[in-house]
Write a structure and sequence with these properties.
By secondary structure, the chain is mainly alpha-helical. It is built from 7 helices and no strands. The protein has a single domain, classed as Orthogonal Bundle (Tetracycline Repressor, domain 2), CATH 1.10.357.10. The N and C termini lie far apart (about 55 Å).
């Protein structure tokens, strides 16, 4: 037990480690989905949105737990070594958005856009209980709606609309 306190000094440390592990699992899920083989930036963005919404919805309880904890005020500064690269969610979207042709969101607006896209992907995990998402057809319809909503909001043109 004494060794445990060498690595973990508070509940926040446990939450941080849980969140970091989830980020690793999320990124591996993306890699396993074939995201790296998709060259077209618009198709890559759509694939990423669909994979992420599905992943976050499948892990709804964890997402809600972490989201609720993040709403609490923190006295600490961000942790050193916290992931701020393409393998964290916002960094991943920042990278995808930067690769899109003719995207009007650059610099600070791109950071805001990446955060909004991430938040939209969490929507079904946070608010989906009243949408009967246990039914696969309803879930797929909700995912289609969210993807279309995000693309429309960012003014991203797809080659062929469904």
């Amino acid at each position: 037990m004494g060794q445990l306190y060498h690595y973990i000094s508070s509940k926040d440390d446990i939450l941080y480690l849980m969140h970091r592990r989830d980020q690793e699992m999320w990124y591996q899920h993306l890699v396993d989905s074939g995201i790296d083989e998709i060259e077209d930036p618009v198709a890559k963005m759509e694939h990423a949105l669909r994979i992420n919404i599905e992943y976050l919805s499948r892990h709804r309880d964890f997402v809600q737990f972490i989201f609720n904890r993040e709403q609490e005020p923190r006295s600490r500064a961000p942790r050193p070594g916290a992931r701020d690269d393409d393998q964290n969610v916002v960094g991943f979207y920042r990278h995808l958005l930067a690769g899109l042709p003719d995207l009007k969101y650059r610099d600070r607006a791109a950071e805001l856009a990446a955060n909004v896209v991430h938040y939209m992907c969490i929507f079904l995990a946070l608010r989906g209980r009243n949408l009967d998402l246990g039914n696969r057809a309803n879930f797929d319809e909700a995912v289609d709606f969210l993807v279309d909503f995000i693309f429309h909001g960012l003014e991203i043109q797809r080659a062929a609309q469904k």
